[in-house]
Amino acid sequence: MNENIGYFFLVVGVLFNLFGCIGLHRLPDVYTRLQAAAKCATLGTCGMLFGVLMINGFGPTGMKAILAMLFILLTAPTAAQALSRAAFRSGIRSWKKHGPEESEEEREIREAS
Amino acid sequence: MIIQALMYILIICCIMCLYRIYAGKTPADRAVAVDILGIIVIGFCSLLSVSTHKGFYMDIAIAWTLQSYIAVLAIAKYLEGKRFDE
Lengths: 113, 86
Fold this sequence. Notes:
The complex is a heterodimer.
Chain A: H1 3-26, H2 30-56, H3 60-89, H4 104-112
Helix pairs in contact in A: 1-2, 2-3
Chain B: H1 2-23, H2 27-52, H3 56-79
Helix pairs in contact in B: 1-2, 2-3
């Protein structure tokens, strides 16, 4: 189809991948890193595959791109959910701004629940 | 030309993920970084298929998607402390 639209989507996807990896590098915690990583998977790589579809049209390569996009949209959120549940059950606590010990408000919330 | 620049940006992303695998505090950090490394390899395959006009790179991308998903599920099950057949 239109090649310029395809290259535009390739650039947008690579930029989303770059931002996701910067988030993976800079964020403080497993859960926040997982949030950046899910953006990287769904928006970044699916954008790149959509660009491939736009460049090649609905031929064999474009159909394979659609199939890969479908698989990524199905599997990436499932994998992120499984990883976050495993991290929570293996005892990793979420990041707090004022250090690992809990404040009084948090202790009240925990004792009330 | 533009494809080559995009490939260099993706290599920078791979280096960031490898640093996270090297320096991650917990095993879950390393598992997340391995997941994202697989996703970036799929993007690399699509860039190669555009630059070389060959279609079989998309086959590699589909296979890599499914393999990476199963690997991440296995790692998550291991982190949870269960056996693989539970």
